Amino acid sequence: MQTQHLRSDIRSLGLVGTLLTLAICLLLAAPSVATTKAVDVEPDPTFAKDVSRIFQEKCQSCHQPGSVAPMSLLTYEQSRPWARSIKRSVESRRMPPWHIDQNVGIRKFKNDRSLTDAQIDTIVRWVDAGAPLGDPADMPEPVEWPDPSAWQLASQFGEPDLIIRSEPFTVPATGQDKWWRPTVDTGLTEERWVKAIEIRPSHPNGRKVVHHVLASLIQEEKGIVGLASTAGDDTTVLPSGRRRSAGLFMEWAVGKVGEVFPDGAGKLMLPDSQIRWEVHYHSYGEEVKDDVVELGVYFYPKDYIPESRTILHLFQGRTGELDIPPGELAVSQGLHVLSAPARLENFQPHMHMRGKAMSLEAIYPTGKRELISMVDNFNWNWHINYVYDEDVAPVLPQGTVLKVTAWHDNRATNPNNPDPEQWVGYGDRTVDEMAHLWVDVTYLEQEQYEDLHAQREAAKKAENESP
Ligand code: HEC
């Protein structure tokens, strides 16, 4: 009732009222116009002053001639034509490729290349202002990028101590995907602990045809530390009672460089060991002759024995068969029990074209559950290895259950779906599916675990108490 009256009153005010309101509005508007002007004093971002610095930090490692991206973003002239596309891809967080959900689980990574909200804002405002160059005098010195054909870890460690090569393989111009599986000797004659490893496809042509590489280390082990269930590892018991085991050493896929183990942890290589390669090749329209992939190994000094041993595990995100019906969003899960206390160093989901999301959850022996990581925006073109910062890498007690959940989107609404009418199961081809997680697990002695755990608790407490 009240409002009804009010409305008719307003109406009855008629023209006079309208004019009055207009006048009041103008009056009110006047000072606010002045304030906006004051704020506007902050100039639009320019390429020379602002955007070039962001590109140097977050884009140019890939967007330079001879690297993986289709165009160079080294100079203003090269970047300017892409301004609109750049705005779209940074706003949607499609670029730089970094697909982990930043709002849940562990949020600090050694290799984080994502843009901050402020950086996205700067790029968007730059494009909206017409993508100006600004004053060339503001340009930063160009970055001196390492040779893309060189070992990427060379800037930290120099040339590898040991280089192991796959056998030559000729990739035809067209045809089905190929899996090349030669086994080669490492040539190692003594036990060595490994600090870092890098897999390097040949440059430039190998980069175009190598989809991913697995390098398994075959050697005689006295006993195997590890998990209650570890798919991906296989072991033969020899007459001597020792075991000849093939454990995954390193995985490489587009977007990945190398692995560096934290101080005090490393992988162990034994004498007479071998590398079993699995190189997934796909044709790109031109023949690539005698392609060879290289594995570079950096050792710790001979007399140094790290406290803990790191083992690369494949955690299946399924039990039994993968079953992805046409037109559906399918969920599968796998459980793995830690048979010793451990620290998880990284998170690297592996799925194919219909892969949508993957998460890792820890269920502690106390029943407490914790979401460790979640990639909610998986893109099969990118096999990104999210490497945890040392002070946040999860430290878990013996008996923890690791639960991997994988989501595959076989609906027509998924733009990466090659055929929503197909039933899809497990398989090697990219149109088949997979659901697993690569994690480097560093096994700890109970005492080490307790120390680390106590350190973490103390750090948490200090953080909570600081204002
Ligand atoms: C890890 C490597 C990498 C980084 C870092 C990276 N890009 Fe890219 N970018 C690529 C690759 C590869 C493609 C082509 C395939 C694709 O689109 O996924 C691409 C595509 C693009 C495209 C789309 C081009 C087109 O064809 O429409 C834009 C725009 C772009 N990147 C901008 C950026 C910007 C801006 C940054 C930094 C803020 C950045 N990228 C960081 C590798 C990278």
Q: What does this molecule look like?
A:
Strands 1, 5, 9, 10, 13, 14, 16, 17, 20, 21 and 23 form an eleven-stranded mixed sheet that branches. Strands 3, 4, 6, 7, 8 and 11 form a six-stranded antiparallel sheet that branches. Strands 15-22-18-19 form a four-stranded antiparallel sheet, with no helix packed on it. Helix 2 crosses helix 5 and helix 4 packs antiparallel against helix 5. It is built from eight helices and 23 strands. The N terminus is likely disordered. The chain is an alpha+beta fold. The chain is globular, with a radius of gyration of 28 Å. The protein has three domains: 92 residues, no CATH class; 154 residues, Jelly Rolls, CATH 2.60.120; 161 residues, Jelly Rolls. Strand 18 and strand 19 form a beta hairpin. Helices cover 22% and strands 30% of the residues. The protein binds heme C.
Concise structural overview:
The chain is an alpha+beta fold and 467 residues long. It is built from eight helices and 23 strands.
Q: How far is the first residue's CA from the last residue's CA?
A: 52 Å
Number of strands: 23
Overall geometry: globular
User: Which small compounds were modeled alongside the protein?
Assistant: heme C
Question: What's the helix count?
Answer: 8
Strand content: 25-35%
- Give the count of structural domains: 3
Main pleated-sheet profile = 11 strands, mixed
Mean pLDDT: 85
CATH architecture of the largest domain: Sandwich
CATH fold-type name of the largest domain: Jelly Rolls
Helical residue percent? Answer: 10-25%
The first-level CATH class name of the largest domain: Mainly Beta
- Point out poorly predicted stretches: 1-38, 224-235
Radius of gyration: 28 Å
Question: Which secondary-structure class do the elements indicate?
Answer: alpha+beta
